[in-house]
Amino acid sequence: LKMSWFWFYLPVHLLMVACLCHSIKVPTTSFQKSFKTDLFNFYHSLILADGKETTVHLLKDIPKRYYFVLEEGRALAPFTITVTPCDVPIEWSILVHKASASFLGKAAQGDHDIQEKAPSMVSTIFNYKGNSVETYMGMSSHSALYMLEFLSTERDTHITVYLTTDTSGHLYPELPVDPRIDVTGVGHTTVTLTWKHSPSVLQHRENIQYCLLVNEKHNYKSLCAAETAIRSSGMKLPSTLALSLSPHLLEPQQVMILSNSELSIINKVSSGEVRQICMGTKNTYTVPNLSPSTQYYFDIFVVNLLTNASAAYTGTFARTLEEPEPKVTDLKEGKVIQVVLDGKKQKFYSLQYQARHKRIQFAFQLCRGQVQVHIAKNGKTVASENISGLKYFSLKGKLLDTYLVQLRSTEESNSSVKVEVAPHFHKPLFPLLPESLKIKSFSKLRTCNSVTIAWLGTQEDSKYCVYKKRIEEDQVWMELQSADRCSGPESRHKSEKVLCKYFYNTNPQRAVTTETIKGLDAGTLYLFDVYLFGPSGIPVRYHSKVVKTKKNC
């Protein structure tokens, strides 16, 4: 017991001597001046500043103490201390030493008997253990010395401490009487939240804003604790939600989205995404793009943009609804359907077919983008791959086998594909294709007003139609990327048609045809397309070719 009080009284005696040198009007010797200077330099880091938020770093099981003596002439003045744990629970307490002027005088004169009487004059006025933000409000006397003691028993950590004697201003934004967050709507991928306005928002709207933190782990009792948790996951985090407005501050694991005056930062961490959204002074928000059947935790912080201080509402949580079973479309034999796949949602589109023959054939014609095909027979996978061009899958089974075809875009943009199922002996609706659908141009045969192109045919007598389109340099990329390889010439302007012709060759190596297109303008870019028509009339479009005529001849 004596040892514990010793650590209090050692700085108490020294601080009191320093305070006396400052406040009591006594003759000041050169020794006193030197002692006072040395004393305050030594204890400068242990004196808690008034009106300033102080960050305190704690080592495990090692207590740390801060002291403050309020200014002379402020007897019975109110003061407030706010402590914010930034990680694990901590223990902290406030001790006060009430002393009279005669006691201070004896302390200044080095009265050793004072230690025997001192313990009765020291009392603990507040203590707390936990990780919540806690505030103590009290009345001070100018003849009292205060000590704050902090201890972390779990691990090294840090906290923030704020002492103020100014009751007129507020460093921390105020919370409403009811600081709870209400969940007003839950969907498969969205959750709608609402909360009571902070009085600070109503009074200082231009300097205050709300920030939302979304994660899959747990609620956080302070913005400081949330930032610490994200940093501990192995990434650097911008200093605060409110002030993280510069994209160059983001790490590779972070994505920032700024839309409709809302700032969103998505952190990729091991326990899932952590989203930070600052939405100004709106007190209702619908969180988008969540995963179905997932529990999320939501925390609202009201942030003072001038001081960077924040206050936390009482966090809440909600579980999104389970994803509905995907709709399944029935496939009919001999019927071609075209499916458009949403690249952003990355969801599977499902088709179902019940076999009426033992041997069947699926045909897929890629129209745009990139598509992954997955085929299961009676629940077991029989084929799965990314397709390009025209792809056939010939499968063998039993009558009434159930086939499930799932299609998904592998790009962020939309993709589309045509699908047909038919008996294996049935003549396919799609035409027989050559080994390559590329169009070749001959640079040596280019002139100022003509170009020569060539393409492969098949052993089947088929119809080929050639179309041309004049384009500009800046249109090339868009024309090639947006081309729909399933669309026929009916979508083209009549003036773009060059010719149509039939040809075939029983020898695939010799099934090549060329065509010279005349009447072109010099030094001009042209887009050439070839359409192949099979017996059923369904067209297949070759890969577009861009050729520029010579400028000078």
From TrEMBL:
Signal peptide residue numbers: 1-23
Pfam families, per the entry: NDNF, NDNF_C, NDNF_N
A biological-process GO annotation: nervous system development
Entry annotated with the keyword ATP-binding: no
Recorded GO MF terms: heparin binding
GO CC annotations on file: extracellular region
Protein origin, superkingdom: Eukaryota
Domain Fibronectin type-III: 173-310, 431-539
Main subcellular location of this protein, as a coarse class: secreted
Location(s), subcellular: Secreted
Alphabetical UniProt keywords: Glycoprotein, Neurogenesis, Repeat, Secreted, Signal
UniProt xrefs under InterPro entries: FN3_dom, FN3_sf, Ig-like_fold, NDNF, NDNF_C, NDNF_Fn(III)_1, NDNF_N
Job of this protein: Secretory protein that plays a role in various cellular processes. Acts as a chemorepellent acting on gonadotropin-releasing hormone (GnRH) expressing neurons regulating their migration to the hypothalamus. Also promotes neuron migration, growth and survival as well as neurite outgrowth and is involved in the development of the olfactory system. May also act through the regulation of growth factors activity and downstream signaling. Also regulates extracellular matrix assembly and cell adhesiveness.
Protein name as annotated: Protein NDNF
Organism listed in the record: Eurystomus gularis
